[in-house]
UniProtKB/TrEMBL annotation:
Residue ranges constituting the Penicillin-binding protein transpeptidase domain according to the UniProt record: 262-555
Subcellular location field: Membrane
Keywords: Carboxypeptidase, Hydrolase, Membrane, Protease, Transmembrane, Transmembrane helix
Chief location: membrane
Descriptive protein name: Penicillin-binding protein 2
Residue ranges of every copy of the Penicillin-binding protein dimerisation domain listed in the record: 87-223
A UniProt-annotated Pfam family: PBP_dimer
Gene3D superfamilies: 3.30.450.330, DD-peptidase/beta-lactamase superfamily, Penicillin-binding protein 2a (Domain 2)
Transmembrane segments: 49-69
One Gene Ontology term of the molecular function aspect: penicillin binding
One GO BP annotation of this record: cell wall organization
Domain of life from the UniProt record: Bacteria
Length: 609
């Protein structure tokens, strides 16, 4: 800023020439300078006041807007931040499709010891052995009197056990808070849930980790704090699951079977409503896995997902449906059924000689191996392979379980004419009951591919059309006739229009060849046939039932009655009303006694050397 001099020389000289007092000039300039300084100070103060007033107004407006937003929002409880150790130990619940709890966390305690702080280690060891019978008093006493500073006694204890330990009055015995995973329904859905165990742990917390089933498959999601504890809703229905397990257990006992598996799936969505494998286990006390021998001997083995079985004549509908789709045949087409049929050095037989010709429908109804092979030959090996692959029978099931990749179907490496023939009636290709249920659901879904899932309500992309709706409808109609007049008459349940196919396959020996008296009996079905809603597969491992004529192992006498009872129990639980306008076929006692010949579905390849 340029300062004006108080006594400018030019004005002073002019004032003296005119006889004026120069001091008046200085006084006037001093007064003007003070006025300018005061004006600048006043403007600065006014600016500061305006700025402060603006800040206060902005603050009040912000507070007012926030208060208005809070007043118009729904009230909620405040959520305090939790420590990382607490986050690590939290795990979301698992529920069924109706919100019923299948797995949850329960607050409990762990028990550990500081031996150097004990007053009477021997007495403490004896007291603990009395409370926990699985502990050895001598071993505990030896540990307590050693140089150890810390040792675990029990990872989890009940409130009653905690009180009993507390009553010992030993200062060296301490408790830590712990969350444990609880399965309130015990064995129900044990293979689906899998089980859990402890990961990283300390005296104040422990990490709960999934070890199998959906607990393992969704481990990260269940432990993710971002989900805010939202439960994982599975597609299974607890009531249907419980009913399936009870019926399968009774059927397994009645049929003297080694094991059993069942899958109930929604046709349209692929959601698994119930899936069971027997024998099972209690995930609250998960047994140790077998280290040697046959994995299927362990209750941990999931036959529905991991089992690799030749599923016999249940496969016969696939080449027939494909031929219908390709317009190579229609349901009334005559098929050469003259038995035996020669392929290379092998002969393929039917149990009965059905004469020179059967209709395509009767090939399925009577379960003709020869007729099925004739139809497969029309299709050709390459197209047959492509269709079976489209049905998902060449790859592990995509269901959300860690066990699913271990259920890789056993597919022939080469596909000569004899392989194409045997695969057409369910031999030479081994898959799981879940694979079979998925394939039948695809046929029942108008030929649109179904992807199995254990998660309820999740939107999934629409599957590809692997079979025309018309061919799929005709295939279901053929399967319906298998129940009304074919090998699955015992599956008829009044009002529910079951459509399905039996399959009895000899079990392969580990050393090669097949057992003569060990089979896997399977019944694959959909219902109601007029508007399919569900696919149901029942499989029994090594069944045998006494009949009037001796002993039978066929699916028609073993798996089929179990499946019929399942439909009777499950249909009302699923909200399906029995149709009263369905006409049931009359079945004479003589026909019922011969529902399915002992070797109808068996592979009969005889070397022609």
């Amino acid at each position: 800023m340029t300062r004006t001099p108080l006594r400018p020389l030019a004005r002073i000289l002019r004032a003296r020439e005119r006889g004026e007092d120069p001091d008046e000039i200085e006084a006037e300039n001093r007064r003007l300078r003070h006025e300018r300084i005061q004006d600048r100070a006043r403007r600065r103060a006014e600016g500061r006041l305006i700025l402060m007033a603006s800040c206060f107004i902005l603050a009040f407006v912000t507070v007012g807007i926030r208060m208005g937003a809070l007043a118009s929002s729904e009230p909620s409880e405040p959520r305090a931040q939790v420590m990382s150790a607490q986050i690590m130990s939290q795990r979301a619940d698992i529920t069924d499709r109706r919100g019923r709890v299948l797995a949850m966390n329960l607050l409990t305690h762990s028990l550990y010891a500081h031996p150097h702080q004990m007053v009477d280690p021997v007495r403490a060891a004896q007291g603990l052995a009395n409370i926990f019978p699985d502990l050895d008093a001598a071993e505990l006493a030896e540990d307590f009197t050693s140089d150890r500073k810390f040792m675990w006694i029990k990872r989890k204890i009940s409130p009653e056990q905690m009180q009993a330990v507390h009553d010992l009055g030993e200062p060296g015995l301490l408790f830590g808070p712990r969350e444990m995973r609880v399965y309130p329904n015990g064995r129900i859905a044990s293979h689906i849930l899998g089980g859990s165990g402890f990961g990283n742990e300390g005296v104040s917390s422990a990490e709960v980790l999934g070890v199998a089933g959906v607990e393992k498959a969704f481990d990260g999601w269940l432990r993710d704090p971002a989900n805010e504890g939202a439960p994982l809703a599975l597609s299974i229905d607890l009531s249907a699951q419980s009913a399936m397990e009870r019926v399968l257990a009774s059927g397994m006992k009645l049929m003297s079977a080694k094991g059993a598996a069942g899958v109930l799936m929604e046709v349209e969505t692929g959601e698994i409503v119930a899936m069971a494998s027997l024998p099972d286990f209690d995930p609250n006390d998960r047994p140790r896995p077998l280290l040697k021998g046959d994995p299927s001997d362990s209750p941990l083995f999931n036959r529905a997902v991991q089992g690799q079985y030749e599923l016999g004549s249940t496969f016969k509908i696939f080449p027939v449906a494909q031929a219908l789709d390709l317009k190579l045949i229609n349901p009334n087409s005559g098929i050469n059924s003259q038995s035996p049929m020669k392929i290379g050095k092998y002969l393929i037989h039917d149990f009965h000689n059905y004469g020179p010709q059967l209709s395509a429908t009767d090939v399925i109804v009577k379960s003709s191996n020869v007729g099925t092979v004739r139809i497969a030959q029309m299709i050709g090996a390459e197209r047959q392979k492509e269709f079976l692959e489209d049905l998902g029978l060449f790859e592990p099931s995509p269901v959300e379980m860690v066990e699913a990749p271990t259920g890789q179907p056993l597919v022939p490496g080469r596909w000569p004419a004899i392989t194409s023939a045997t695969v057409s009636f369910g031999h030479g290709l081994a898959a799981s009951p879940l694979h079979l249920a998925t394939a039948y659901a695809t046929v029942a879904n108008g030929g649109r591919k179904v992807t199995p899932t254990l998660v309820h309500g999740r939107k999934r992309p629409e599957g590809e059309q692997v079979l025309s709706p018309r061919a799929a409808e005709m295939a279901v109609s053929m399967l319906r006739q298998v129940v009304t007049r074919g090998t699955a008459r015992r599956a008829e349940v009044e009002g529910y229009e079951i459509a399905g196919k039996t399959g009895t396959a000899d079990k392969p020996r580990p050393s090669g060849g097949y057992y003569e008296n060990k089979v896997v009996a399977t019944f694959a079905s959909v219902f109601p046939a007029s508007d399919p809603k569900y696919a149901l597969v029942v499989s029994l491992d090594e069944p045998s039932v006494s009949t009037g004529g001796g002993e039978s192992r066929t699916a028609g006498m073993t798996a089929v009655p179990v499946a019929a009872e399942l439909v009777r129990r499950l249909a009302p639980l699923l909200g399906l009303k029995a149709r009263t306008d369905v006409e049931l076929p009359e079945i004479s006692p003589r026909v019922v006694a011969d529902v399915e010949p002992a070797s109808t579905d068996a592979v009969k390849l005889v070397s022609n050397k």
